[in-house]
Amino acid sequence: MTRRSVVAGVGSALPRRLVTNEELAKTVDTTDEWIVERTGIRNRYIASDGETTGTLATDAARRALEHAGIDARAIDIIVLATATPDQTFPSTATKVQAALGIDDCIAFDVHAVCTGFLYALTVADSMLRSGNARTALVIGAETFSRILDWEDRATCVLFGDGAGALVLRAEETENGILATKLHADGRHNDLLFVDGGPSTTGTVGKLRMKGREVFRHAVVNLAGVLNEVLSEAGLTAEDVDWVVPHQANARILDATAKKLGLPPEKVVVTVDRHANTSAASVPLAFDTAVKDGRIKRGDVVVLEAMGGGFTWGAAALRY
Ligand code: COA
Question: Which of 22, 30, 114, 212 to probe ligand 1 with, by most ligand atoms within 8 A of CB?
């Protein structure tokens, strides 16, 4: 037996307001046909007044704790992945901590854009395996709607808001997180970025993207890191029950699965209902597939994501 991080519970949260492609086409020069054909997206959820990254994260965390049957006060560490924090500081993780009524624990945000959840999971897993913590709350939460340029049809149709959370427990087991692998290559900073920030413009800024080039890098990087993480976990593609990918674009999901020889029915797809929710997308999709009964205890699940930086990463676990 080895000390490993076991997924004790999962949860997610979405804003109240659902926005369809048709609704978007009333204010943006686009069509439902174009969005569905190029991306697979049909709906997204957009935060209303009073809904923030922190409130969505807190709701997702509460549901994950409830699913795990664990009291919030048992949490030793909160790692929250976001590129859209409530404030520049303090961290959104500390806001979640306060909202959950936890008096003392480690709490901080991780910023790796759409790969943020994989980075957060890897950090939490390391803390648990090293014995520095026993129970972790790992959250991906975003309100990208607040950094979109709603006049840029090439980007604003692609993203949505939401949050997902996992409760991890350190146990002596052969299950849990088997391997993780992370990468970054900052030479591609200019392909996907926000054109503002506290230390440059003093503003929040808007998302900018060269979509075609991001697409090209995504398929190559994701197939590569999936192969790496499987090999590190001593698994082959045939051992995988479910792939839970970052939900950026249905065509990227198809192309990546094909490159690895994975049948499309093993890939959890939620991009049609949630669009791209950045760091929230992997735990949101994971929770969806656990709660609808697809992912079962004992299944081998592989998570992967790629985002601005570029950053990319993957994790293999036995649920
Ligand atoms: N509605 C209608 N037309 C649109 C549109 C929209 N929402 N957005 C762009 N177009 C138009 C463009 O203006 C362009 O028109 P033109 O040929 O007259 O100039 C045409 O569609 C093709 O644009 P292009 O950007 O080349 O399309 P594409 O096939 O590359 O698809 C993306 C665009 C964004 C869907 C695609 O590149 C993509 O998914 N990239 C990856 C993005 C991603 O996943 N990013 C997040 C990673 S974390």
Answer: 212
